[in-house]
Give the backbone structure.
Amino acid sequence: MPTQFKDALSLIKRSEFAHPFLISSVLSSEITAVIVGFASFTSLLPAFRWVASQHRMATTSSKNARKKEVKKETGLGLTYKKDENFGEWYSEVVVNSEMIEYYDISGCYILRPWTMAIWETLEAFFDLEIKKMNVKNAYFPLFVTENVLQKEKDHIEGFAPEVAWVTKSGQSDLEIPIAIRPTSETVMYPYFSKWIRGHRDLPLKLNQWCNVVRWEFSHPTPFIRSREFLWQEGHTAFATKEEADKEVLEILELYRRIYEEYLAIPVIKGKKSELEKFAGGFYTTSVEAFIPNTGRGIQGATSHCLGQNFAKMFEIDFENEKGEKAKVWQNSWAYSTRTIGVMVMVHGDDKGLLLPPKVAAVQVIVVPVPYKDADTQAIFAACSSTVQTLQAAGFKAEHDLRENYSPGWKYSHWEMKGVPLRIEIGPKDLANNQVRVVRRDNGVKADIPVASLVEKIKDILISIQENLFNTAKQKRDASVKVVQTWDEFIAALNDKKMILAPWCDEEEVEKDVKTRTKGELGAAKTLCTPFDQPRLPEGNSNFCSSLLQSHNFNDLIDHFVSSDFFYRFICLKIFFFVFKIF
């Protein structure tokens, strides 16, 4: 609060007791009021009202100018429970576990070392795998001109609301506004056109690790909806559609491995609907996760076949082996730091973060448990020796030897940070040449002989990784509901289920679903058409008397036939019908 308002409010408080006072305070930039004497509250009421009105105006202006965003201060323990207030719980966990810190620009966050260690682990895996596919890393500028951005109309229309623009340099307006990339197709492809001339220049496979900015949205959520975020984006060009199709699925499989093998999160691979595909693309595939606590699906990563649309816009031509001029076939694919947010949502609990061992910055934390008459130095030495043994065996282990915190406080602290395994060493453990281990995922305790420490720790960490995945999969599978009617669909939607439903693959039906479900906790949307489809017996009918001509489910749906739309199913298609996350 400005000094002049503090002085004025102090004056008002004193006047309630009719004390003599002196006011010498600048109440505005032009007005100075000096009042000497003995005054009553009543005689000064008009002045007080004026001061109060100025304060209200200043406060209102300040609130309107500031983006509202809840900030959670770091502390031990959580105020909110996951099942009772998921949004507040999530906000607390990502701060209290020291993953992020809020920044003074809404929607932007500081990614702390605990987070970056996870991102670097995923980056190391993915970078190695795409290099096996002969993908090369490059880096393209952050900025793009308006003319280039507008070149592909459908593409930019999909991103237009999210594009941030640079319009000034110092005090001068830029003659030509410059956009900050929301994605890099239009940044890269003018140079693909320059570099590709003949079939020997193909395939061209590039990837970049970078940040992007997508500005226009409300209710930012760390990792899930950020105005700036980290990602990788791959851009490739091929001579044939077959080559492009093959790579789309190879990349999608790598994304599945990131989620299932590293983050211990079950995902569904499938194809997006026409309404949900990448703007300007030919088709989009994705991996989709599900958050049982909210009943909402979340897109984990995407692998797009862009077809020849961008090649036409940017004139990416080549001379094929027959000497004929042809357009290249292109792909783009990306995953982002959203992966980390999904991990927090799926595995976290009321104690805080819960990290899969494969991505944890610290897999094992060693905590000394000295007693009053115990040999503290001997216990500390045993902790250090244990850490050295584990590190030599390739584990990410640390000890917490801080003497100003109790063992109980340390237990809670490292549980909050999600460390998969805790080792406790006290006098009894020293005497028995053993250590006590405590699992973060299920709280199970066990005493392990020092002689078999490395082997046992390895087995336990593998078990934790598997248990996290299996638990998440059981919860996800229990949330899947197959429905046949609109009433069943609405009931499942309100019950926070992931819905499998037959669908005719019509865009108007999909639009109708979003419209009709707007009041049902938020508009429902399709996730994808699962590649793994159940079989349907011949002769089965759905929604009408027409017989289905296909035995397979082919797509992923969000809607059923309504009173306004009556569709005959030529083939039965299956869609996940869920909300859009946040």
In short: The chain has four domains: 3-65, 86-141+196-347, 364-469, 480-580. The first helix runs from residue 3 to 15. The chain has a mean pLDDT of 81. DSSP finds 16 helices and 26 strands in the chain.
